[in-house]
Amino acid sequence: MKCISPISLCFLLCLCAFQSVSSQNAITPPRGWNSYDSFSWIISEEEYLQNANIVSQKLLVHGYEYAVVDFLWYRSLKGEKNSIGFDVIDEWGRMLPDPERWSSSRGGRGFSDVAKKVHNMSLKFGIHLMAGISTQAFNNNTPILDTITGQPYMESGRVWYAKDIGLPSRACKWMDKGFMAINTTTGAGKAFLRSIYELYASWGVDFVKLDCVFGEDLDLGEITTVSEILNGFRNPIVFSLSPGVNATPQMAKRVISLVNIYRVTKDDWDKWPAILSHFNVSRDFSASNLIGAKGLKGSSWPDLDMLPFGWITDPDAHEGPHRFTNLTQDEQRTQMTLWCMAKSPIMYGGDLRNIDQQTYDLITNPTLLEINSFSSKNQEFPHITTLHDVKMEGYNVTKLQFTYSMALTECIDPKASGWFSEKHNQSLERICYKNPKQDQEEPFCVNKRELQMASLNQRYIQSAHMWELKSNGTLVNGDSGLCATVEYLLAEGYPNGIRSWIATGRTGEIYVAFFNLNSEKATISANIVDLAIVDPSRRKLRLCEGTETWSRTIIKTNDTFSAEVASHGSALFVLHCH
After folding, report:
1. Whole-prediction pTM
2. Closest CA to 259 of 236, 284, 289, 278
3. Mapped to the 3 state alphabet, what secondary structure does 508-522 carry?
4. What catalytic activity is recorded (predicted)?
């Protein structure tokens, strides 16, 4: 009988454990580079590989392992973002790389050569996809491929085509000329999606960002079908959803087990108000215990979007990187700190060929990346004060003037209730919404016959008969199954005041971040007794020692700790308390 030495046995056990972990998806928030913020949709193979090479050489050691090609890699530069007839598709209606920009794709090779080069850099290769089917394939009425037989898909004695599964009435809101949803209740619809993902998996794709499928564009049928397909693949593929306009925790709970990443905001760009909009969202998803929930073959993470730092372009521009971010150094620190405290995936968006040292130091800050990957109990921390001893548990606003915007949400969301019908001007019936939490505001009303003209995603408001007012005060959309709500938006002014987050580390440390959202500097304080919010067993804390990350100030206190925080800036404490 042959014996295995203790050292060999230990090696085998470690190898098995490593393979078990590495075969899982997104155990920590994924980290990498995405081409959108710097190249919009016009990136070339050379530009992509140059950036991927820098990820490999300078960022991989810091956990950045994905290099993602964002949208329209299949569109000729002769087209525009929302145009038709310029996409490269095969005989089955599947998108192929534009050979003018991706020369290695010629001869039916797709992204195989690019993926191989990325893998040789020890990175993982990602692509962006639009949900559904392209309008170009629909108009051409391409046949559906049955990947089992290699022949056109047949069911009920006939061949199925693009026009049998495409739904023109459900075109993507922001690319209505380019893509439409498909009927995933049919065998042909499922076969079409399987043919897509089997092709891209054969190229070596490790990451898929599926767009126009979540938030107000929610398509649970496609998300579920794609998830089932990816779950059947031997090699794991991280599954990401985008965008997240009007996404809610209730909505997220329907998809978290199916995906690994899901956007919870609209696109984020380099403007201070865009950063502000993420504070409430990140708080709500954390409070719903959604950070790091069980996902597709691993974990799932609420996504606050890419980091628009460094050398970038403009939203949806037909132009590559040409300007430096508009965010100040303090604003970039605030964004990076919030993203890491909320454990969002970290996808850098700037052109890495022109990254400056200050930006590089920020996105590779070891304390922030440790928090992002390994901290726990991450949540907003309400127990902070200013010098004037004013409790700031939410945020203040400079003016309380509201405007309104209709949105869709899950029908179980409390914000879905509050709809009622009333007579107006004796004969005209209208539908109104009143949020009890907004008592100072008049109800939002819309004439019943004009409901289809409300400011909602057009795919949901084709005709008035699609809406039904229920006795429980919800207004149900018959097409999507979601309910209408009304968002009260500040007409003037943005949130200001102060915010804070707290989390615990792997070795018992406590992380506390202060955020100053005001236009002037502020001194923010907290008491160490309140830090027990993350560990009630340590309620009698007597002493905390540590440092503030940005100023490198040494902290030692048995009472309060504080920091003078610049306008739009942040402070980050690493504390050891007992």
Report:
1. 0.83
2. 236
3. CCEEEEEEECCCCCE
4. Hydrolysis of terminal, non-reducing alpha-D-galactose residues in alpha-D-galactosides, including galactose oligosaccharides, galactomannans and galactolipids
Determine which helix (DSSP H) or strand (DSSP E) holds 115, and give its type and residue range.
helix 112-120
Model pLDDT for residues 46-96, shown as the tens digit of each residue: 999 999 999 999 999 999 999 999 999 999 999 999 999 999 999 999 999
Which tokens in the block code for residue 57?
A: 């050489």
Tally of CB atoms within 10 A around 47: 18
CB atoms within 10 A of CB 148: 9
Burial class (CB in 10 A: 0-12, 13-18, 19+), 174: middle
- For CATH 2.60.40.1180, list the domain ranges present in the chain: 385-395+494-577
- Between these two residues, 3 and 528, which has the higher pLDDT value? 528
pLDDT reported for residue 193: 99
For residue 57, what is the DSSP state? Answer: I
Amino acid 136 reads Q
Q: Domain 385-395+494-577 is of which CATH architecture?
A: Sandwich (2.60)
Given a contact cutoff of 8 angstroms between Cβ atoms, the answer to whether 141 and 162 are in contact is: yes
Q: Which residue has the tokens 């048995």?
A: 558
Q: Is the pLDDT of residue 4 over 80?
A: no
- Measuring CA to CA, which residue among 35, 31, 22 is closest to residue 345? 31
Report which DSSP code applies to 525: E
What CATH class has 25-374? alpha beta
Residues of each domain in the chain carrying CATH 3.20.20.70? 25-374
The answer to whether the bond into 345 is cis (omega within 30° of 0) is no
Strands (E), 246-368: 261-263, 293-295, 298-303, 311-312, 323-324, 346-348
Which of 109-129 are b and which e, b meaning 16 or more Cβ less than 10 Å from the residue's Cβ?
Answer: ebbebbbebbeebebbbbbbb
